[in-house]
Amino acid sequence: MNDASNAAHGRRGFAASDGAHPVLQLTALSRSFTQGGETIDVLRGVDLAIAPGEIVALLGPSGSGKSTLLQAVGLLEGGFDGSIRIMDEEAAKLDAHGRTIVRRDRLGFVYQFHHLLPDFNATENVVLPQLVHGAHRRDADERAAGLLTALGLGHRLTHRPSQLSGGEQQRVAVARALANRPALVLADEPTGNLDESTADIVLAEFLRLVRGEGSAALVATHNERLARKMDRVVRLHEGRLQ
């Protein structure tokens, strides 16, 4: 980890030790699948805490369980054992409605593929989750324009996804993830579908904007070079974090 990352990590640690609850606390998180009569342990007692504002890289090769871990934290599927506390609330046992509220109010998501709505322009893709959250349209428009402009898309606000490059589409996805000011952003290989130079630019903008917003983030990647740009790196190996 470089000096800047160490310094950043030191600030996060100070914030956490100053009495703030972790944004995310995983305790003994486990997940198993049965395939062909054989039990496969994907996650084996994962423990992880992320402090407010901390950006953590989840490093591991394809198939190591990174996406499964993010699905657990994102409350996107059941079948997990252990504890998932988000903003000091036990979320693992919430019903479907409760999980939806937590996802809407506290989490943001960025995937490898942008999943933008093709019939909506860049601004509208960022406005929509805010309207679902209960924002007024004027405020949502201003928030969307501000985020997109901060990501270098001020001249592309009315363009639809098909009119944007891959890097521009992913920037819109980043803005959408931050639209409702989430406490925690979950990113699953967010630059994995981009060429190296574009990936570097998009990741730098992602990190800058997440830090500027004061959100924490858990970013799954197999790229060690990109992982080192974050505050802390944890490695998933054989279902356990190292």
Brief descriptors of the model:
Rossmann fold, six-stranded mixed beta sheet, 242 residues, alpha/beta, disordered N terminus, four-stranded antiparallel beta sheet
Return the domain count. 1
Tell me the structural class.
Answer: alpha/beta
Per CATH, the superfamily is P-loop containing nucleotide triphosphate hydrolases
By DSSP (H or I, 4+ residues per run), the number of helices equals 8
Q: What's the count of strands?
A: 10
Largest sheet: 6 strands, mixed
- The CATH C-level class name: Alpha Beta
Overall pLDDT confidence: 85
Q: What is the CATH architecture descriptor?
A: 3-Layer(aba) Sandwich
Radius of gyration, CA atoms, in whole angstroms: 18 Å
- Summarize the helix and strand pattern as letters: HEEEHEEHEHHHEHEHEE
CATH topology: Rossmann fold
**Uncertain spans, ≥5 residues at pLDDT below 50?**
1-17
Beta-strand portion reads 25-35%
Q: What is the spatial order of strands in the main beta sheet?
A: 6-7-8-3-9-10
